[in-house]
Amino acid sequence: MKDLLNLAWPDILGFFLVFVRVGVIFSIVPFFGAEIIPRRIVAIISFMLSLILLPVVPMAHVNSDNIGVFYILMLLFHEFLVGLCLGLAIDIIFAGIQMAGQLAGFQMGFAIVNVIDPMTGVNAPVTSNFLYIVSFLVFLVLDGHYLLIKGMVESFRLIPIDIALPTQGFLFAPVAYGAKMFIIALKVSAPVIGVLLLVNVAFALVARAVPQMNVFLMSFPIVIIAGLISLIVVLKLLAPVLSISLGHAWRFMVFSMSNF
Questions:
Q1: Which of 31-45, 60-74, 127-141, 242-256 has the highest mean pLDDT?
Q2: What is the CA angle 171-172-177, rounded to 5?
Q3: How far apart are CA 126 and CA 112, in angstroms?
Q4: Could you tell me the pTM of the whole model?
Q5: Comparing 30 with 229, which gets the higher pLDDT?
Q6: Distance (Å, rounded) from C-alpha 158 to C-alpha 153?
Q7: What b/e string do you get for 65-93 counting C-beta neighbours within 10 Å, with b at 16 or more?
Q8: Helix axes of 215-258 and 168-177: crossing angle, nearest 10 degrees
Q9: What contacts 112, CB < 8 A, 6 or more positions away?
Q10: Which of 15, 40, 257, 37 is nearest to 152 (CA)?
């Protein structure tokens, strides 16, 4: 029995290392990392996918003859960092879209109209939740989930399981890529902000020309209607923005892996 365990030990260790990388990715990416998804379901999906990936994962860098506690901890830390980097590449895209919803909602007067975000369990503007849900559906239509799995498989080829510490380029890559969140937020919210800015300028001119008119009360419904119409236009922009952002995410994955 002991000899059998010794023979199977490299495969057992390899499975747990693959499971750590896959599990960290699924705990961060949208939908699977949401509060409404039971952790048990995420663990089962990560477990099954790890079993599927195990036969194709190169284990040549793992020294199975001299394995100690410190060596195993270094391997686990290595896999945790790689999974964290890949998960953030996808999560930053949706964080930018949520930020765009917050900016648009603030301009529309929905700053205090908050609802419970089912994905995170915290209060968020209603426009932010709406754009997040729609963008996730677009993400599925664009086969973003296939890109995620492709990134997982490719990560084991570019960054095999090892105890090598990350380079400076790998550590600063997520920080540089984080700027994409603000760029995506501005791209998505720009039509709404631009239209509402013109509406407010028009109301300012009307208030100047007709001081007797109560422009303040009249502006609320018109601003909301103009904001909703421009928000419909924004929905048409989600597909190209997400498509370009997924391309950037893939290039970020390859760049960060090549600099590990």
A1: 127-141
A2: 120
A3: 10
A4: 0.80
A5: 229
A6: 9
A7: eeeeeeeeeebeebbebbbbbbbbbbbbb
A8: 160
A9: none
A10: 257
